[in-house]
Amino acid sequence: MSRTLSFRLKASGLHLAGSGLVIGVFLWLVYGFWYMVPYQLVFSTFDVVKVLIGVDLVLGPLLTFIVFNIAKPRKELARDLAIILAFQLSALAWGVHVTYSVRPQFLAFVGDNLYAVSGRDINLEELPDDIKRRVWYEPPVPVSVRGPQSEDEWKQHTVDLFNSKVPELMYQSRRYRPYAERGMYSGVLPLTVDALREKGPGVNQWLDSVLVKEDASSLAFYKIMAGTFVSWAAVRVDDGFVINVMPVQSVPPPENKS
């Protein structure tokens, strides 16, 4: 093995080790805090992670292997490596920004529906004083959404929504109330175990796996939505913590009205 090739392999190997450490920390933040179980099913971060792995673990070390040459003037070599590093840092900054900004911050309970809401989807300045914001390492904050309380309010809300004057209820942060007040603003209740079993064999398999570890009396079941994702979620009644999400990305079948 030539001396030049040996140095190139060592340089790219060190680069790979350093990049692997950085990516490891990034993945720890993403899946350990921002998208902890089961929210990685609801919010797909795979595309962002795939780009970062391609840039930091493949392209970066490969470019270092190509440009590293001990025969080059030191300034020229330092410039080449700095360009590669800047490219990688730019990709990393983009990945951190995207995954952090769209992370779920609130679980908005509206009737028998549950919406995973990111901070960029709502006006955080309109949050009531008794609703705390999520600290970066905490799970999403469960909130009850206070809908219109009279027929006239509903009519006005429908008109405003049609005219794009207001967003849908789950995105109106001024309507957020503490999770303990759930059910006070809607007569619609979450599904029971028996009602959920009527949704089909696929749901039953998931439900059985949940009930192996959890007591049915401590759970409520909601249709969970975030963007195009729609599925079923098992929620701990006492604190609104989502303990499990059915791993599908299709709309649950409609109820048979016949």
Shape, principal axes of CA atoms:
elongated
Order of the strands making up the biggest sheet: 4-3-1-2-5-6-7
N→C terminal distance: 77 Å
Helical fraction = 40-55%
How many structural domains are formed by the residues? 2
Share of residues in strands: 15-25%
Calculate the mean pLDDT score and round it: 87
Number of strands: 7
| Global Rg | 24 Å
How is the topology of this model organized?
Layout: H1 3-34, H2 39-42, H3 46-67, H4 74-101, E1 104-110, E2 113-118, E3 141-145, H5 151-162, E4 176-178, H6 193-197, H7 201-211, E5 219-226, E6 229-236, E7 242-245
Parallel strand pairs: 1-3, 2-5
Antiparallel strand pairs: 1-2, 3-4, 5-6, 6-7
What does this structure look like?
This protein is α/β, with parallel strands linked by helices and 258 residues long. It folds into two domains: 3-101, no CATH class; 104-245, no CATH class. It has helices at residues 3-34, 39-42, 46-67, 74-101, 151-162, 193-197, 201-211, and strands spanning 104-110, 113-118, 141-145, 176-178, 219-226, 229-236, 242-245. The protein is elongated and about 80 Å long.
In summary, what is this structure?
With 258 residues, this protein is an alpha/beta fold.
List keywords for this structure.
7 helices, single chain, seven-stranded mixed beta sheet, 258 residues, alpha/beta, 2 domains
